[in-house]
Amino acid sequence: SAPYVAGVTLLMLEANGSLSPADVKGRLMSTAIDWGARGSDVEYGAGRLDAYAALAAAGAPLASPPALPPHLLRDATVPPAGGAVDYPIAVTNPSFPVGVTVTSPTWSSTLGPFFNVQLLSPGGAPVAFGTQTGRHTEVSATPSAAGTYVLRIASSSGGAGFTADVSGGFAPAPLAAVRPAIAGAAEEGAQLVGTDGTWTAFSPLTFAYAWRRCNIAGTACVDIPGATARTYLPTSADIGSTFEIVVTATDATGSAPASSDPTPIVVARPDRTGPLVRALVSSGRRGASMKLLYRVSDVDGRPRERVRVLRGSRVVRTLSTRLSTREAGRTYYVFWRSPRAGRGYRFCVEAWDGLGNAAAKSCATIRLRSR
Q1: Cα–Cα distance for residue pair 101/119, rounded to 1 Å
Q2: Average pLDDT estimate for 4-18
Q3: How far apart are CA 208 and CA 194, in angstroms?
C-alpha cells in the first residue's frame, strides 16, 4: 500500500503545492472509506484510501469519478459453536464481484474463534466458501444474476465479535422485497395499521412512516400533516378518500421509501350501537295472564326483543317479538300466564336491531299476588 499512498500524495501536492504534511495526512484520512472496526483501528488505520476523493479534497480539477462498487461495514457477534449470523445482500448489478473480508480482532491460533464464511446464491446454493485460519477470512464470487444473496458467518469453534467488510453491486440503500401494507377497515373511526414490509439490508433498519390521503382512484396522494405514526384513525373529513402509507427504511448505507397499495374508499361509521332496553318490575295474579313490562329504543327504531322468564337461574319460558317500530320513552310488554304456585320469578329482556347489534340484558322482578 505504501507506493499507492506515495503516488496519491505526489498527485495531491502537484494539484496544491501549499499543502503541509499534516494537510496531506488529514485529507487522506478524512476521505478514506472506513473498513474494519468503526473509526481508526489497528487493522485498517483510517480505512481504504480513496484516491479520487483525496485528490478532490486537495483541489485537483477532476471530472466525475469512475463507477465503483458500494461498500458496507457490519459488526456483530457470532454465538458459540453451531451459531451463525446471516445478512441479506440485494445484488442489483451482477457485473461487480461480491467481495467479503471478515476480521476477528480476538483470534488466536490456539483459542480461535474459528468461523466458516459462505456466500449463498438466491436459491441457497454456496457460491463462495472460506474457513478461518487467521485474523482475516476472505471470500469472493461474481454473481451469475441479480437477486438477494446471503452472507453466512458460522462458528465451528468458539464465538466472538467480528467485522465484515463487503463490496459489490448491491443496492446502496435498503430495498423493499415486500411492500408495506395497511390492515384494518376503511371506515370512519376504525384504526388503520401499517406494516413495515420486508426489506433486504446489510445493517439494522429503522423505519419512518407517512400517511397520505388519495382520491377514490388511489392517486393524487398528499401527505397528511402530523400523520407519522404506524397507525391512523380516519375521521369524518376522510369519508370518500383512500389512503396509502409510505414507509422509509434507513440503514448505514442510506434511506429508501416504499408505499402500500391504496385502501378501499373510506365510508361513514356504521351503526354498531345496540338498542337501549330496561325491564320494569311487573305485577300480576297467580294463574292469570299478566304483562311483563319493559322499555326499548334504538337508533333505527326497529328492534326485536326476547323475553325470558326465570325461576332462580332456570329458564321456564321464552317469549320473542318481531322487528317492529319502537319509540323511546314508551312502555312495551309481552303476555305471560303465571303459575298458580311458587315464588322467586323474574324476567330478563334482550334486544337486537336490524343490523344485529345487541343490547345489554336487563332483568326485573315479577311480583305475584293471590288475588
Answers
A1: 12
A2: 90
A3: 11
